[in-house]
Amino acid sequence: MTYCVGAMIDAGLVFASDSRTNAGIDNVSTYRKMKVFENAGDRVIVVLSSGNLAITQATLAQLEQIIKRGNVPNLMSVGSMYEATELIGAALRQVRERDGLHLQQNNVDAGANFIVGGQIAGEPMRLFLVYAEGNFIEATPETPYFQIGETKYGKPIIDRIVNKDTTMLRTVKCVLVSFDSTMRSNLSVGMPIDLVCYARDDLRVLHSRHLDESDEYMRRLRILWGEGLNRAFAELPPPDWMA
Amino acid sequence: MTYCVGAMIDAGLVFASDSRTNAGIDNVSTYRKMKVFENAGDRVIVVLSSGNLAITQATLAQLEQIIKRGNVPNLMSVGSMYEATELIGAALRQVRERDGLHLQQNNVDAGANFIVGGQIAGEPMRLFLVYAEGNFIEATPETPYFQIGETKYGKPIIDRIVNKDTTMLRTVKCVLVSFDSTMRSNLSVGMPIDLVCYARDDLRVLHSRHLDESDEYMRRLRILWGEGLNRAFAELPPPDWMA
Questions:
Q1: ipTM of this model?
Q2: Residues 137-196 of B with CB under 8 A from A
Q3: Interface of A with B in 52-111 (CB under 8 A)
Q4: Do A153 and B157 touch (CB under 8 A)?
Q5: Do A155 and B155 touch (CB under 8 A)?
Q6: What residue ranges define each of the domains in chain A, with the CATH number in brackets?
Q7: Is residue B192 reached through a cis peptide bond, with omega within 30 degrees of 0 on the bond before it?
């Protein structure tokens, strides 16, 4: 399983992804699920992926090859995030067309999703969710974030905290708490966590962190959040009919 | 959708279920998903159900008819919770055999689950989860609760709070917070909530509450829990690389 979050606030963009993949419980590995396409001063495009790992890797490999060959349009050449997301959706469709039937014959799920966000010079920041079918939707001020993978355990805290006016700092803390809740409830989501922060109109990555098991901040966050929840819970009054 | 929880602590049993069912978003109704079979001094058996409503209703109707007709074995005659759960699993299989093919022809999911818990004189309290196939598992001190339906949003708080030593009061508060989180994140889970508490060896229901939209305690719980979470979140330190 996988857990990825992309959030767009007025101040910028926050992306995070876990690194665990599994093909059955005896086959758990670590792969990066975040790819950053950056040309400082011109563009930052972050792609998070979930679903069938062979499908998402092949999709991204194809997109990178086009860049290397210098064929256009490619992710480093397009003039808008919308076109970048179209390229990703189209590459996903191509890979699924090529591999899908073979996977289906063995009842392997070929599903894959991407979160695509960033900014290209001359355009505002944008954030998209690419469906397994290759079509996509865009985040709005009312729905400022997307999740893919194991989304439910970590959703309630984001719904409470993140809106377009939330600061970058609060958004980062919230995304990491959301990862903590998810990793607690689903063993197939695990460290390390890749985290990227982008400040609006910067056109270069602001923070890029790789938080592994030994990360002191994640360890403290886990303990303090547990204690805070327990305190908040203890302060709730009893029902009158039980008091 | 549905959300039901059954928890077995040393002090007793706590059961709760929501009341919303839907067959498409324009067809949302309220049905009780909790059934209590009680013969004070002899037994209390609580059954919570999720899944296809026609299937769960037919299963329970069949079990009640057998009681009314006085045929044995039935839920009011059996000598153990294990046998009671066997009866429920067998009735579910019968109903699915009768109706399953018809549902399948229209691609309707015939899946259904039950949580079955209680105590029969001469036996300890027990708690079971009945799968859609009619087989079942039993709760243990290490896994003292079961959820059915929309389980993920409300699971993290139960995992943090409930173990076999938790008091009845804390367990009730925790289950209601779990419902609050679930209802916030999934509109198809909704009030009223049916709640039953059973104190170990009492052989009669201790509390039975029907909490509807106007319930003052649930309203306060929702507000106070939101405030408590926000406080706990605000107290978390920033990552050192952002401070």
A1: 0.89
A2: 152-153, 155-157, 159-161, 168-169, 172-174, 176-177, 181, 184-185
A3: none
A4: no
A5: no
A6: 3-215 (3.60.20.10)
A7: yes
